[in-house]
Amino acid sequence: MNQAPMDSLPLSLHHAQTIEAALQAWRAELGKDCLSDFFFSNLYLFRSVHDYRFWPGDKPRISGLTYDGQRHVLPLFDLNQTSLAELQDMLAEHGFFYPVSAAVVAQLDARAFDITAHEADADYLYPADHFRHYRGQQLHKKKNQMQQLLARGPVSSRPLNGECVDHAHAVLAQWLCDKHKTEDQADAQACREALHLMQDLKLEGAVYYLDEQPIGFLLAQAINPSLAVMRFAKGVDAFTGVYQFMFHNFCVNRPALQWLNFEQDLGLPNFRQTKRSYNPSHMIQKYRVRLNQFTAQAN
């Protein structure tokens, strides 16, 4: 017997265990093609931006808004094991299921669904060796930029804890100033919360220094020893090469790391240009799945 429908709740830390139980299984199954969205931490940090709400029950799910303003549902259950009538009920006030992995899409009955993917949603995936060595003509500029930084003096890193968190906040403030952005115009609020909740959200990071001056920091998340997602990277514009060095150092310090996911570009030209300049191995598509009009009418 199906559990009675339950009202949705604003996404909170209390939901972490239930949501992670579903997402952890998907991460293990998908390997390097895991979507960067499939972590409670990512959902939680951007809960306000996306108006995320958690729907408990025997078919748990999260509803929200995509970056392009479309209402969607992230299913925390198997779409292939759910009746079309149930799926239609869930989409009564939402446009589609999203993000859905290629592995799940491959098992869906294509006759019943409309399946699309947007370029702006796709994750960028890179071999970690790109950042360890910056080999080849396409990455030669990255190596030169890193060398420019190293020529200015000794660069060091410290784990993100204790007073180093304050240094990261100072870098973030300078980054906002360099980019001429307010807190509301960037991901600063989510970044500050991530710095505060690093341990709870299973994030790891480091602050980088030139002659003891903080010049950048990273916050990343390990999916497994061979794969990590870069959640936040902030550097001071006055220090050319800081990003190239931070990515290099992160990968060099993790010999088992094989892949680095840089998330999506949101359709922003600067993001797209920068992420493409590191020569991604491939893009991980995130699908939007709707019931087609014939299926919807039949149910």
Gist?
This protein has 299 residues and is α+β, with helices and mostly antiparallel strands.
Give a structural overview.
- The protein has 299 residues and is an alpha+beta fold.
- The chain has two domains: 9-119 and 285-298, Gcn5-related N-acetyltransferase (GNAT) (Aminopeptidase); 123-263, 3-Layer(aba) Sandwich (Aminopeptidase).
- Helices cover 35% and strands 25% of the residues.
- The chain has twelve helices and 14 strands.
- The chain has helices spanning 16-30, 40-45, 47-50, 84-90, 102-105, 128-133, 140-150, 163-179, 188-196, 242-252, 269-277, 293-298; strands spanning 9-10, 53-55, 61-65, 71-75, 96-100, 113-117, 123-127, 155-159, 204-210, 213-224, 227-235, 259-261, 282-284, 287-291.
- A seven-stranded mixed β-sheet has the order 1-2-3-4-5-14-6. It has a seven-stranded mixed β-sheet with strand order 8-9-10-11-12-7-13, with helices on both faces.
- β3 and β4 form a beta hairpin.
- α8 runs antiparallel to α9.
- Mean pLDDT is 94; it is low at 1-5.
What is the CA-CA span between the terminal residues? Answer: 20 Å
Order of helices and strands: EHHHEEEHEHEEHHEHHEEEHEHEEH
Give the helix tally: 12
CATH architecture descriptor text of the largest domain: 3-Layer(aba) Sandwich
Lateral arrangement of strands in the main beta sheet:
1-2-3-4-5-14-6
Extended strand count: 14
- Look up the CATH topology of the largest domain: Aminopeptidase
DSSP strand content:
15-25%
Portion of residues in helices? 25-40%
The CATH first-level class of the largest domain comes to Alpha Beta
The CATH superfamily of the largest domain bears the name Gcn5-related N-acetyltransferase (GNAT)
User: Rg to the nearest angstrom?
Assistant: 20 Å
